[in-house]
Each structure stands twice: as structure tokens, then as C-alpha cells.
């Protein structure tokens, strides 16, 4: 079973670098304090490069910005030396032509391991896919590269990881839905849509989860709320992917049939056209 970050670092040979949140270190599964903001910035910038070298002038700019020390190169060497001692592995910060690189195993950096787990989840069956995605999302403690996320060198990487996090959260909810774990899917999607109310795929999945959980009137309410928000904030209408399904769960003798998603029109039951109001639709779908 894939576990959280402590288990991740325990399996890796070498230091653990945490940058999905404020930059931090672990060694032998135990946290190592990084009290200096400059050293945390160095650690985050080097991790954002994915193991590739970062030029010294770029490191200096990321750490000091316009407030340069008297000897920038000497100050950088001092901070790198102190960071090596905290990491506990001299080879982890390798000298490269005109720069430095973070040389640790991919499983030892939470951002790198997050991407690997998300990649491994693709193509898996719902249950193992959900487990991998859940473990990947558990690595996050806050904004990626928190203290330097807006620096020019780091911002594209931070934005890409944030986008991947949101897609992974949607993928996890979808895997839960496919596995029949509707309650967990709905709970996660409620949180996600509260954080990102304009993400249409998340809204569509939430509507699907509410239907599958036997809450069709709430699904309609969500759609109406989403339509109003899109119109008010962006002047748009919902895309086909987040419009209402053509067939939903039909209730016969207390059992539910297969859920089909998504289409543009409301469902009809075998007895009558489904009413357009949420209360009427819920009543129709509950007809035995």
C-alpha cells in the first residue's frame, strides 16, 4: 500500500525534500528544521528544476532579488554549504557548469513523487487508481514552493503542479464514482468546487455523484447555481460536459440502474415526462 510522506521518505535512500508547501527536509523519516528563509528558497528553487542544473545567477536572483549582498557569489556559497549540512548528504547539491543541481532520488522529493504517482494511476482499475491518486494528493501540505512560488524561475512549475493537483482531485473523485464510493466522491467534490467553483468538470462530476447517491434534486440545484455563476462572472453558459444527463438513476423496487453521463436534456421515466422542477424530478425518480 502506498502511504503518506513519512512512508515515502522511509522507503527512499537519501534525504527527503518537501516542497508541496513550505520547503522542508526529512532525514531517516524525521523532520529537519530549515529555519533560514534563504535556505528554504534555495531548496525550493533547486527542486523546481526537477534535477536539472540551475545557474548560480538565477539562484542568486531567486534568493535575494534586488537586495543583493556585497558578494553575491560568496553569499550563495555560504548558503549552499549550510544547506548541504542540513540535508546531510554532500552529493545532494551537486556542482554543475555555472550552477548547481539537486541530486536525490525522485521518490525523495514530494513534488517529483506526486507526478510519478499520478502518472502510474493512469490506466489502472478504479480501486488501485483511487489509492494511488489519494496517496499522491496526501503529499500536499500547502501551495507548491510556497515562499518562492511567484518567482519567475519557479512560477511556471508551481502553476503546472497546481493544475495537476486539481485534475488529480477530479480523477480521484471519478475513480471513487466508478468504484461505487459515491459518498466519498461527493464529499471530495463538494470541497473541490468550494475551492474552485468554476471548474466545469468538477461540477459535472459532483452532479453525477449526487444523482448516483440518490440526490437528484440537489444535482439540479448545483447545475442552476453553476449556470448562474458562469453567467454572472464570465458571461458564459455551461458546456455540454456539465449540462444535465439524458438518463439518470431510475428507481424501481428500491434498486438503481446503471448511471449514464452526460447528455444535454433531462431524463424521462417510463411512466411520464419528468417534471422540470427539482422537487418534481426527485418525486418522479423515486416512484416505485
Would you give an account of this structure?
The chain is mainly alpha-helical and 288 residues long. The protein has helices at 5-11, 37-48, 56-64, 72-87, 110-121, 126-137, 155-178, 182-195, 200-212, 216-234, 278-285; strands at 16-18, 24-27, 30-32, 54-55, 93-96, 99-102, 251-252, 255-256. Helices cover 51% and strands 8% of the residues. A hairpin with a 5-residue loop joins strand 1 (16-18) and strand 2. It has a domain at 13-106: Orthogonal Bundle (Arc Repressor Mutant, subunit A). The protein is elongated. It has a three-stranded antiparallel beta sheet with strand order 1-2-3, with helices on both faces.
Shape: elongated
* CATH architectural arrangement of the domain at 13-106: Orthogonal Bundle
User: How is the CATH topology of the domain at 13-106 named?
Assistant: Arc Repressor Mutant, subunit A
Q: What is the percent of helical residues?
A: 40-55%
CATH homologous superfamily title of the domain at 13-106: Winged helix-like DNA-binding domain superfamily/Winged helix DNA-binding domain
Q: Under the CATH scheme, which class of the domain at 13-106?
A: Mainly Alpha
Approximate strand percentage: 5-15%
- SS field, number of helical segments: 11
Rounded mean pLDDT score: 82
- Main β-sheet: number of strands, strand sense, barrel status? 3 strands, antiparallel
Could you tell me the radius of gyration in angstroms? Answer: 24 Å
Structural class: mainly alpha
Q: Describe the strand arrangement of the main beta sheet, using strand numbers.
A: 1-2-3
Strand tally is 8
Q: Give the ordered list of helices and strands.
A: HEEEHEHHEEHHHHHHEEH
Amino acid at each position: 500500500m502506498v502511504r503518506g510522506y513519512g512512508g515515502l521518505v522511509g522507503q527512499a535512500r537519501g534525504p527527503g525534500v518537501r516542497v508541496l508547501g513550505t520547503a522542508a527536509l526529512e532525514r531517516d523519516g524525521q523532520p529537519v528544521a530549515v529555519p533560514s528563509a534563504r535556505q528554504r528558497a534555495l531548496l525550493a528553487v533547486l527542486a523546481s528544476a526537477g534535477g536539472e542544473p540551475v545557474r548560480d545567477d538565477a539562484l542568486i536572483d531567486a534568493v535575494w532579488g534586488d537586495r543583493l549582498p556585497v558578494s553575491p557569489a560568496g553569499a550563495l556559497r555560504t548558503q549552499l554549504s549550510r544547506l548541504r549540512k542540513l540535508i546531510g548528504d554532500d552529493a545532494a547539491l551537486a556542482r554543475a557548469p555555472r550552477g548547481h543541481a539537486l541530486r536525490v532520488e525522485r521518490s525523495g522529493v514530494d513534488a517529483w513523487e506526486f507526478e510519478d504517482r499520478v502518472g502510474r494511476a493512469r490506466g489502472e482499475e478504479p480501486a488501485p487508481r483511487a489509492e494511488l491518486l489519494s496517496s499522491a494528493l496526501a503529499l500536499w501540505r500547502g501551495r507548491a514552493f510556497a515562499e518562492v512560488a511567484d518567482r519567475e524561475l519557479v512560477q511556471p512549475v508551481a502553476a503546472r503542479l497546481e493544475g495537476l493537483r486539481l485534475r488529480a482531485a477530479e480523477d480521484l473523485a471519478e475513480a471513487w464514482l466508478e468504484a461505487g464510493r459515491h459518498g466519498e466522491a461527493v464529499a471530495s467534490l463538494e470541497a473541490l468546487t468550494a475551492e474552485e467553483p468554476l471548474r466545469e468538470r468538477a461540477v459535472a462530476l459532483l452532479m453525477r455523484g449526487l444523482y448516483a447517491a440518490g440526490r437528484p434534486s440537489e444535482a439540479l440545484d448545483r447545475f442552476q447555481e453553476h449556470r448562474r455563476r458562469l453567467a454572472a462572472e464570465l458571461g458564459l453558459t455551461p458546456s455540454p460536459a456539465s449540462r444535465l444527463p439524458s438518463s439518470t438513476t431510475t428507481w424501481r423496487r428500491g434498486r438503481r440502474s446503471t448511471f449514464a453521463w452526460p447528455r444535454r436534456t433531462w431524463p424521462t421515466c417510463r411512466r411520464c415526462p419528468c417534471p422540470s422542477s427539482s422537487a418534481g424530478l426527485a418525486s418522479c425518480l423515486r416512484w416505485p
